[in-house]
Amino acid sequence: MDGIHASGEAILRLSVFTAVFMVMALAEWVAPRRPLGHGRGRRWVTNIAIVAIDTLAVRLIFPLAAVGFAIWAETREIGLFQILGTPGIVAGIISFAVLDLAIWAQHVAVHKVPVLWRVHRVHHADVDIDLTTGIRFHPIEIVLSMLWKMVVIAALGAPPLAVFVFEVVLNGMAMFNHANVRLPARLDRMLRLVIVTPDMHRVHHSTEMRETDSNYGFNLSIWDRLFRTYVPQPALGHEGMRIGLEEYQSEDPTRLGWSLALPIAPLDRRRRSTGSGGQPAQ
């Protein structure tokens, strides 16, 4: 793993990202799940610009990123698996599952903690949902997420290869489960027994609060079932449901400047007293 990181981890990740992006874009064109109310155009330019800013911010603040940090921790024998001498394959499997649970918990937190919701609502403000929504996260949220992953990596002593695989899978799955793709119903039922499908995660992007506060998973679907936050389908159906935030049903979220400034913007009166999860807003 040291060699992969030193010689081109970023290039490898970019290659996988590009491949998944192209496959999902083609799938959306061939078999769209619902018509886009605002199209692609400026939405895609804004969402792709946001992920570019995110990448720059992470590389400037954390030059090693998650994989490099895992290598650093491993060389210093930091973490539970290092202390116990856990076999690599066992440590890798457990690390992947625990990291996925950690991201699920982080997702719940950004909905329930008002100051974090201010940042996370940039993601939910997207007025349509497609693969680019899966990469639309404010730079502040991405930086905080990296810090959280580093805490988990250090606590576990997660193997660098497991961290690398998790990062690649998480990025690809975010584009997959946000994609505007129609999967055969039987295939969707089978897949969501293990992973989060587009139909499953789309419920989470509903303007209905009960549905927004559900289906937090990105990779494995087990966590929402286990913690009883699983909602199978939107009440109005996938064609009838409204996407985004009730107070931002306009062209504003398609603008880059507006999206980056949203965390410091005043909360709408309808959400001034409660955050997404019913918590007092600040």
From TrEMBL:
Any one GO molecular-function label of the UniProt entry: glyceryl-ether monooxygenase activity
Keyword Ribonucleoprotein applies: no
Membrane topology summary: Multi-pass membrane protein
Transmembrane regions: 12-32, 44-72, 84-105, 146-170
A GO biological process held by the record: membrane lipid metabolic process
Domain Fatty acid hydroxylase: 94-229
Pfam families xref list: FA_hydroxylase
One GO cellular component term: membrane
Intracellular or extracellular location(s): Endomembrane system
Protein keywords: Lipid metabolism, Membrane, Oxidoreductase, Transmembrane, Transmembrane helix
Keyword tRNA processing: no
InterPro entries: Fatty_acid_hydroxylase, Sterol_desaturase/TMEM195
Chief location: membrane
The protein, known as: Sterol desaturase/sphingolipid hydroxylase (Fatty acid hydroxylase superfamily)
